[in-house]
Amino acid sequence: MSSGSTPDVALVHDYFVQDGGAERVAIELARMFPDAPVHTTFFEAARFRDRIPQTRVSTWPLSRIEPTATRFRALLPAYIAYFSLLTVLAERLVISNSSTFARAVRVPPRALHVAYVQSPLRFAWNVDGYLARSSFPAAARVALRLAAPGLRRWDRWAGMRADVTVSNSIHMRDRIREVWGRDSTVIHPPVDVAASSISTEAEDFYLVTTRLLAYKRVDLAVRACTRLNRELIVVGDGPERSKLERMAGPRVRFVGHVARAELEVFQRRCRALVVPGVEDFGIAAVEAMGFGKPVVAFAAGGALETILNGRTGVLFDAQTSDSLATAIERLEATDLDPDIARSRAMEFDVSVFHLRWRELLERLGLGDVMQDTASEG
User: Fold this and answer.
1) Is residue 281 within 8 Å of residue 174, measured between CB atoms?
2) Residue-wise pLDDT tens digits, 252-310
3) I want to staple 224 with a disulfide (CB 3.0 to 4.6 A). Which of 13, 77, 198, 324 is the partner?
4) Among positive and negative, which fits the CA dihedral 105, 210, 246, 130?
5) Which of 311, 326, 274, 324 is nearest to 295 (CA)?
6) What's the average model confidence in pLDDT over 191-211?
7) DSSP H helical ranges for the chain
8) What is the pTM of this model?
9) Average confidence score pLDDT of the chain
10) In whole angstroms, what is the distance from residue 221 CA to residue 204 CA?
11) Closest C-alpha to 341, from 299, 309, 294, 303
12) CA nearest neighbour of 224 among 324, 297, 304
């Protein structure tokens, strides 16, 4: 900490409502910098306070309105205004971790702003892909299409605001270069592989674990497993759940959001993880490989960086239920070595995340900040 009341390091994150990959990164950054305050909008204490002490977290005024957190996606203009005007005080370093808005934060002239980018504003840059097959009402669809040009301009402005940009994958680095026109350093998200071990448990079910949004393409897994009469367990919740349940066969089970310990039980016991959408990186796939489990995934995005086709899983080229079903059958006819899967997963262990951050901060002349804080945590 600095000698005054202003911290050396401050952290900023969009919202702690969902327990996804972006939140995993925010939590690990908070562990790496245990003295840094965390600035956000919503913080669901029941879900996150065991990983980030609530005393470290500053939220926005709307968080006092309890029902609002359940409708957090409807507050688009409020997020833009809040983060565009928010000044986060720090003596030396502000790290924003964002898939949407937090990268727009202001920092003092003396501090360096490093933005860890999960994605450019997805629903602004890929409107058709975001809305396709979704359950959004007609009014919301029209509103998003009308707002998209302005949102893209704002996102490009916000994306250029940081001094340094870090992307979560090569796939995302290329995307940032395409839509913002700036380069970024790749640091893959942290996965606590070392804390797990190869599972000797095996049951005959496939697993999907993701937010139930249309672009995640969980419908492909539901249709493929229904057609093949394979058991599928879907972990996660979201606006598309009802629609997915209606198309599911009797061997497809939706369990909603589960605690971390229960999720690990599913991961250890599944036959394989299925990733039917384009993931920016794909923490779930690396976690599965850490348990020695294979992954069936669409051959795009982060899957191309993590999964070794034919060695740690099977990739399918066409984003259709037929192509996925064929990949599942191909997996069942292939003998894969769980040791190779785990070895691959270790390349993305949380220790590597720490190392890459240390290397980056040393290049920026801030290695001592991380060293001091890391030694305290």
Assistant:
1) no
2) 999 999 988 999 999 999 999 999 999 999 999 999 999 999 999 999 999 999 999 99
3) 324
4) positive
5) 274
6) 94
7) 21-32, 45-48, 76-85, 122-125, 127-131, 138-159, 170-180, 218-228, 241-247, 260-269, 283-290, 303-306, 321-332, 338-346, 350-363, 367-376
8) 0.91
9) 93
10) 15
11) 294
12) 324
Tell me the C-alpha distance between 87 and 108, whole Å: 7
pLDDT-derived band of residue 371, with 50, 70 and 90 as boundaries?
low
Do the beta carbons of residue 315 and residue 306 sit within 8 Å? no
- Which phi-psi region, left, alpha or beta, contains residue 29 (left: φ > 0; alpha: ψ -120 to 50)? alpha
8, 361 contact by CB (below 8 A): no
Residue 138 one-letter amino acid: A
Instruction: Give the model's pLDDT for residue 255.
Output: 97
Distances (CA, A) of 57 to 37, 39, 53, 113, 306: 6, 6, 7, 19, 33
Residue 3 has pLDDT above 60, yes or no: no
Residue count (the chain): 377
